[in-house]
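Hi R.,

As promised on Friday, here is the backbone we talked about, encoded as structure tokens. Could you run it through your design pipeline when you get a chance and send me back a sequence?
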């Protein structure tokens, strides 16, 4: 029975790609540290854990809804037909159960944080779930994904302070631009399939070369935003080292992904972007505790 239980946990982890939380979780943690810096509060483990759980439950709900909503397309796509639902690894009813459970847990954790987070939680949930439907009607779907992940920094900040501030909003703008840019790169995987199925994306609409140009522009603007945020927040040396490394990862992924050579696309999407968020977080925390 224990083996079956852990296998089921592993299956659901595969369903929602738990490893992909590296795209939003680091910036939720940054939002938390921003909040305790601005309020002068000490590190509170309970609040920190609740923020992590909020991000986890929201993302689990979003990804499970995505897999449910896209199951018919995933079954037709050679790249995705082995995913858990189309392959039969996870039954549809269990995916629905997992979705509802994570929605309920998300609402509970926001309520335990503060009333403002609880009031705003339905809006956040509509955004993170709604992204999965956007490819059906707009080629701007990448920006909806960027919007859904961009809530992590400001959401964590609100969880501590219950008030808005320009600095976490700039971090949210940064995440919006960064995620939108790399999702455009990821969409290069399915240009032909999207066109055949009537699905929408920037690469399918504008072509691979033009889509990559837009991705570069978004990432350049995102670097400008994070520099402004660091200057307004009076960050120190470690922050700027982390920013420089992040910029290197951004430029490197555009160097290895060319419109005529997509062989290293997954490496750019998963490795470069996942690693850049974790590295930036590490240097941000160093800057917080050891300002030099």
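Update: got your reply. Pasting your designed sequence below so it's all in one thread:
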């Amino acid at each position: 029975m224990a083996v079956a239980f852990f296998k089921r946990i592993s299956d659901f982890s595969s369903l929602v790609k738990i490893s992909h939380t590296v795209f939003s979780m680091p910036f939720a943690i940054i939002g938390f540290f921003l909040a305790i810096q601005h309020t002068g509060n000490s590190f509170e483990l309970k609040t920190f854990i609740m923020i992590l759980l909020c991000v986890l439950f929201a993302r689990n709900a979003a990804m499970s809804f995505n897999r449910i909503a896209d199951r018919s397309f995933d079954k037709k796509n050679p790249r995705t037909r082995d995913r858990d639902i189309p392959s039969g690894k996870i039954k549809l009813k269990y995916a629905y159960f997992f979705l509802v459970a994570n929605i309920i847990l998300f609402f509970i954790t926001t309520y335990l944080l503060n009333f403002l987070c609880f009031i705003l939680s339905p809006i956040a949930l509509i955004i993170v779930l709604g992204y999965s439907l956007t490819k059906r009607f707009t080629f701007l779907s990448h920006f909806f994904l960027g919007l859904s992940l961009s809530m992590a920094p400001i959401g964590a900040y609100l969880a501590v302070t219950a008030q808005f501030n320009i600095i976490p909003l700039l971090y949210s703008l940064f995440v919006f631009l960064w995620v939108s840019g790399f999702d455009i790169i990821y969409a290069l995987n399915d240009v032909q399939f999207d066109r055949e199925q009537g699905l929408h994306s920037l690469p399918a609409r504008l072509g691979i070369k033009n889509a990559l140009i837009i991705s570069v522009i978004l990432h350049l603007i995102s670097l400008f935003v994070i520099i402004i945020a660091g200057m307004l927040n009076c960050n120190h040396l470690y922050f700027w080292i982390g920013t420089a490394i992040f910029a290197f990862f951004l430029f490197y992924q555009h160097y290895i992904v060319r419109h005529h050579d997509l062989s290293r696309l997954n490496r750019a999407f998963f490795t470069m972007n996942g690693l850049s968020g974790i590295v930036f977080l590490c240097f941000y925390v160093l800057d917080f505790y050891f300002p030099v």
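One thing I noticed while checking it: The chain has one domain: 8-289.

Thanks again,
M.
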